[in-house]
Write a structure and sequence with these properties.
It comes from Paenibacillus foliorum. There is one protein chain. By secondary structure, this protein is α/β, with parallel strands linked by helices. The protein has one domain: TIM Barrel (Alpha-Beta Barrel), CATH 3.20.20. Helices cover 33% and strands 18% of the residues. The chain has 9 helices and 9 strands. Strand 1 (9-13), helix 1 (25-33) and strand 2 (38-45) form a beta-alpha-beta unit. It is globular. The model has no long low-confidence stretch (mean pLDDT 93). The structure holds SN-glycerol-3-phosphate and magnesium ion. SN-glycerol-3-phosphate is lined by residues 13, 40, 42, 55, 114, 143, 165, 188, 212-213, 232.
Length: 248
């Protein structure tokens, strides 16, 4: 039996994107059904200033349309089918607005909003509106590979929870903290980059460690043993089975 102080959060990466079309309400709903306690999603701003949930800057890969989100209107984006490319069963699934996710996901679920687009005054303004309207200051964590985006968000609203994303060079989080003076909530390293020392160091500095994207049970067990605070996966059901088996 494994004794742990704290079970890591099950974070559905783009929802349950191994089994449903990524970054759709269907994918988020499935992740929650499967036991996810957190959801990771990616955002872009439309031409008319609404925040859409989509990984890529274009709609080409995950819808039946083409074009840059930044050049398209809400009306154009909402007409697209974001489900059929994955499976005909999901035909008619739309690209969600961030607002629709905030409105439909239970308040206790942590939402990790990964900012993929540049931080413009409009994006900043709309994010803060939505956080206030849906009372999500405490249950949203903003992450980005572009750490300046996070710095900009924090400067506007110091209460925001921000997390640094890393595909490499994980340990330099202390440099970022020291250079910017930014109060960092979490670190989001790629799972192959971390070892027990890194995780212990981060946790001892009061940081959560939310690693991504772990789909292989052997690797799930490895990062669990390292003591991470959350595990992002495309297969939340699999992660739940694995965690339950370790803790039973
Ligand atoms: O937030 C973790 C992960 O989503 C970062 O990479 O490309 O899947 O958005 P990507
Ligand atoms: Mg992402």
């Amino acid at each position: 039996m494994v004794h742990k102080d704290k079970r890591p959060l099950i974070i559905g990466h783009r929802g349950a994107s191994g089994e449903a079309p990524e970054n759709t309400l269907a994918s988020f709903g499935l992740a929650l059904q499967q036991g996810a306690e957190g959801l990771e999603l990616d955002i872009h701003l439309s031409a008319d200033g609404e925040i859409f949930v989509c990984h890529d800057s274009t709609v080409d890969r995950t819808t039946n349309g083409t074009g840059e989100i930044a050049n398209m209107s809400v009306e154009e984006l909402k007409m697209l089918d974001a489900g059929s490319w994955f499976d005909e069963r999901y035909a008619g699934e739309q690209l969600p607005l961030l607002e629709e996710v905030f409105a439909s996901v239970p308040a206790e679920i942590v939402i990790n909003v990964e900012v993929k687009c540049p931080l413009t005054p409009r994006l900043q303004e709309r994010l803060l509106q939505l956080l206030n309207q849906y009372d999500r200051l405490q249950s949203v964590v903003f992450s980005s590979f572009h750490h300046k985006v996070l710095l900009g968000l924090k400067q506007e609203e110091p209460r925001l929870q921000v997390g640094l994303l890393y595909r490499g060079n994980f340990i330099n989080h202390r440099n970022v903290a020291e250079l910017t003076g930014m109060d960092i909530y979490s670190l989001h390293p790629y799972y192959t980059l971390i070892d027990a020392e890194d995780v212990a160091d981060a946790v001892s500095h009061g940081l959560r460690v939310y690693t991504f994207t772990v789909n292989d049970p052997v690797q799930m067990k490895r990062v669990y043993d390292l003591g991470v605070s959350g595990i992002g996966t495309d297969f939340p059901a699999l992660l739940k089975i694995m965690l339950d088996s370790l803790e039973s």
